[in-house]
């Protein structure tokens, strides 16, 4: 770890974390394609990040979903009675339940339409336009999710039941709301307590492409979900230029599941510049 990374971690003293290894993430990317029907996986909404929610929840719960929504139910159902995870109160906001229901929502933004417009322009042989966004804080991202949290709560109220853990999974695209903590190792300690409806026991927030946190209503705290190696000689998998590690596993999951549609979350970041006024004209 660099000195700069260590300094950025100083403010995180006392933060609750759950860490899993690269091998567990690799297992999850494989297990979903083995145990969930291929047709169900192919119906996950890539633009909304439903495939990311399936991969990440499978990874940290250590079990595959018993149901993926294709008929208007909740998006993901887990039989958590089968899980050996000892941190369910942090991940689900509940203990002693047999099932956990997840409702996935992505925060609206302009990038998905821009991404679709780029595809249309390229098919016409035209040069795609530029997309712009303003940097915000991670707390601003959570605040922007309030309408989606309310929608998740309504659907969990209508489709789930109080005897199950009811969990919202919020996805934020970096190109809609780039957040200033993007390069920090952890961000949970920078987040304030959210106001959640009674229908939600826990809320996961994926700040694509780098950070995953969860708020537990019963514990009243944020938990940072981390990925790494516990072995001294452990090394992270090689990733394509400009990609983040979680994007690497997204690519593996999509390949193994036989999903050949493009994901707006699977991209590389590189340095570039805007065209000059003369070039633009």
Short account of what is shown:
By secondary structure, the protein is of the alpha/beta class.
> Which strands sit side by side, in order, in the main sheet?
1-8-7-6-5-4-3-2
Question: Counting H and I runs of at least 4 residues, what is the number of helices?
Answer: 10
Strand content: 15-25%
Low-confidence stretches: 274-281
Rg for CA atoms:
19 Å
Instruction: Output the structural class.
Output: alpha/beta
Spatial separation of the terminal alpha carbons: 46 Å
Order of helices and strands: HEHHHEEHEHHHEEEEHH
Main sheet overview: 8 strands, mixed
Shape: globular
As a percent range, the share of helical residues equals 25-40%
Mean pLDDT score, rounded?
86
Please report the total strand number as a whole number: 8
Characterise the protein shown here:
By secondary structure, this protein is α/β, with parallel strands linked by helices. Helices cover 33% and strands 16% of the residues. α2 crosses α4 (50-61) and α2 runs parallel beside α9 (245-256). The radius of gyration is 19 Å and the shape is globular. The termini are far apart. Residues 274-281 have low confidence and may be disordered.
């Amino acid at each position: 770890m660099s000195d700069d990374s260590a300094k950025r971690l100083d403010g995180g003293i006392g933060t609750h974390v759950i860490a899993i290894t690269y091998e567990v993430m690799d297992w999850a990317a494989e297990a979903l394609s083995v145990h969930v029907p291929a047709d169900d996986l192919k119906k996950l909404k890539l633009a909304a990040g439903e495939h990311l929610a399936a991969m990440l929840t499978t990874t940290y719960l250590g079990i595959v979903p018993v149901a993926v929504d294709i008929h208007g139910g909740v998006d993901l159902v887990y039989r958590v009675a089968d899980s050996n995870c000892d941190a369910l109160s942090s991940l689900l906001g509940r203990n002693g339940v047999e099932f956990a229901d997840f409702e996935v929502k992505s925060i609206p933004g302009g990038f998905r339409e821009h991404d679709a417009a780029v595809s249309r322009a390229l098919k016409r042989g035209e040069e795609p336009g530029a997309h712009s966004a303003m940097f915000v804080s991670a707390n601003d991202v959570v605040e922007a999710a309030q309408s989606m949290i309310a929608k998740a709560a309504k659907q969990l109220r209508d489709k789930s039941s109080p005897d199950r853990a009811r969990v919202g999974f919020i996805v934020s695209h970096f190109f809609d709301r780039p957040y200033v903590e993007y390069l920090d190792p952890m961000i949970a300690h920078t987040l304030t307590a959210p106001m959640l409806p009674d229908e939600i026991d826990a809320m996961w927030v994926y700040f694509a492409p780098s950070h995953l946190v969860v708020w537990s209503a019963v514990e009243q705290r944020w938990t940072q979900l981390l990925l790494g190696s516990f072995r001294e000689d452990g090394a992270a998998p090689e990733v394509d230029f400009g990609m983040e590690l979680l994007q690497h596993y997204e690519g593996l999951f999509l390949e193994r599941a036989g999903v050949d549609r493009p994901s707006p979350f699977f991209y590389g970041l590189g340095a570039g510049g805007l065209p000059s006024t003369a070039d633009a004209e």
